[in-house]
Amino acid sequence: MPVSYRDAMRAALLYLLLSVVWLQLSGHLLSSFFDESADLARWQRINGYAWVLISTALIFFSRSRLLRLLGADTWLRHQQEDRERLRQAAAVFDCTREGVLVSDRKGLIVHVNRAFIEITGYQQDEVLGHMPSMFKSGHHSADFYQAMFESLKNTGEWSGEIWNRRKCGEIYPQWQTIRAIHDDHGQLSHYVAVFSDISAIKDSEHELAHLAHHDPLTDLPNRLLFTDRAEQALASAQIHKRGCAMLMIDLDHFKMINDSLGHNIGDQLLKAVSTRLLDMFGPGITLARLGGDEFAVLAESCPQPGQAAALAQRIIDGLKEPFELADHQLFINASIGISLFPSDALSAEQLLRNADSALFKAKSTGRDGYALYTEELTAHAQQRVEIAFELRRALEQQELRVYYQPVHDLKSSRLIGVEALVRWEHPQRGLVSPAEFIPIAERTGLISEIDAWVMQQACRQMCEWQAAGVVLSFIAVNVSTRLFARRELYQQVAQVLHDTGLDPAFLELEVTESAVMDDPEVALEQMHRLRELGVRLAIDDFGTGYSSLLRLKRLPVQKLKIDQGFVAGLPWDEDDAAISRVIIALAQSMGMQVHAEGIEQEEQARFLLDHGCDLGQGYWFGRPVPAVQLDWNCAPQIH
Ligand code: C2E
Ligand code: MG
Ligand code: MG
């Protein structure tokens, strides 16, 4: 119970009064009892001691009441409690795993704990008196710090993730809480920052995210990530108008390997398959393991079914090489289903479903092969892939032939030139038309070898005819659009002329209209260079491209060949007749020769002759034949 000041005063007065009364009374009493001064002195001494004792007891009793009165006992108790609390706080401060940094109100560091030293790598004396900005990682923008200070100013607190730099230079994430501390007068006095190093958590978060998106065995993207990436790739393909292909690969009879050799070998095989597949692909191709023995591939730039089929074939062939695994040599085959974007489906999910049903088709038609989602495409693509493969062999095994088709002067009907046309004498399929294999050769790059070979053969043949006394004005050779765009064409032609010794004036190079107009500037330069060699130039299939007359005028070309598509309708089709007339007039006005191809009937030849066409070529005059079968005396008369 608290003691009031008046109580204390009253107690003190009472004590004084008691002392006086006691001393007076005891003095009288003692002197009345004891006459002897010695006894009196002794008793007075005893009385004194008794009073001292009573006083001590009273003082002791009142002291505690007095201290209570002054509040000093509370203060002392508080002091003691505070000391206890501080001791505890210091222990916590030092033992906690969280780093603690205390700075004064200017931000200068005044205290750090042991965990701080452990986490940051800095010693206490290296940081005291410095600003916490010395730990900045450069990871955050100025806006980030601005928001932090705003929050500290407005709410007195900030907490969040922050990337700082350890003494060793390593950047690491912290979860940090900063609190502003105010003194009794409400003035800002300190900041206390408590933080924990969350790099371990981050790592495991990262690991978890990785696990959630990857197949643990092969570390390839799983279905989730693959679908996500595919969606992104498709969105970009849509913008850039690119075609993509989704391939689903399934290993044939994988279950047998698993069952007979155990899951360990099965796992090793899956890993080896994924490594081999990854080695096969370059950028722009994503590989994923969808589960079990199923893999998926997304080819981001694969517009043609033929290209997708070629990729599938490459995968099938690539997996055929045996796998060497722990004393086992394993052979596996794969089946592949292909679905194309955008022709088969627009979403990744749908493409996967389509590829899956195509895979089913591939499996049901005997495995170890591929199938496209669209059936007609499968057959077509398969054929193209086969042709591409076989064409290389055809070149090596000399299965290509050059046929020659006569070109006649329409006025005199005389055979004045020939066009060299390539043929493929396929061991099983017989004579294959260039229309079938030239586009494939162009795509696979083989065209350059084929054209060089045909040119060589044709020039050599022309030399032989000349030596035999055959008089021909020219031998025409077709130049592929692909080759025409390349600089090496010039060297190639020069080389052939040099090797064969043919007078360049007898060699005519046919270039299609589209090849010329696709890149007119390159074409112009190329043509001028070829003209410097002394060869003649003709524009083939004229009327099918979109020639600019202005550009045409600038080309160093000696001949226009009217496309057979316009000749076919002559003389009755009015449009064909009008176009043919215009082309003839155009060529004449530009000083070029006009050459009509695809003449199958006399009426066509008649019409063309009547309208001033110079040369004619077609079945009516003669089909393309091997050199030895050419009939030099053939000169069908136009009536
Ligand atoms: P092109 O240069 O326009 O050749 C004319 C094509 O028309 C030839 O087809 C020829 O056989 C065909 N033809 C000729 N007269 C008639 C006719 O009266 N009626 C019909 N319906 N067709 C006729 P071919 O030999 O199948 O060649 C097709 C195309 O393949 C050629 O068209 C040419 O662009 C290309 N080509 C042929 N040989 C070569 C070559 O050695 N190199 C390159 N790059 N392309 C070649
Ligand atoms: Mg031609
Ligand atoms: Mg033609």
Low-pLDDT ranges: none
Radius of gyration in whole Å, from Cα?
51 Å
| Class from secondary-structure proportions | alpha/beta
On the 0 to 100 scale, the average pLDDT is: 88
Relative strand content = 15-25%
User: How are the strands of the biggest sheet laid out side by side?
Assistant: 13-14-16-17-18-19-20-21
Shape: rod-shaped
CATH superfamily of the largest domain: EAL domain
CATH topology of the largest domain: TIM Barrel
Return the CATH architecture of the largest domain. Answer: Alpha-Beta Barrel
Distance between the termini: 145 Å
Helix content: 40-55%
Number of domains: 4
CATH class of the largest domain equals Alpha Beta
Q: Tally of extended strands?
A: 22
Q: How many helices does DSSP assign?
A: 23
Bound molecules: ligand C2E, magnesium ion
Question: Sheet bearing the most strands, described?
Answer: 8 strands, mixed, barrel
Explain what this protein looks like in three dimensions:
The protein has 639 residues and is of the alpha/beta class. The chain folds into four domains: 5-76; 96-202, PAS domain (Beta-Lactamase, 2-Layer Sandwich), CATH 3.30.450; 214-373, Alpha-Beta Plaits (2-Layer Sandwich), CATH 3.30.70.270; 383-629, Alpha-Beta Barrel (TIM Barrel). Helices cover 51% and strands 21% of the residues. The strands form four sheets. It has an eight-stranded mixed β-barrel with strand order 13-14-16-17-18-19-20-21, surrounded by four helices. Strands 2-1-5-4-3 form a five-stranded antiparallel sheet, with helices on both faces. The protein is rod-shaped and about 190 Å long. It starts with a helix and ends in a 13-residue tail after the last strand.
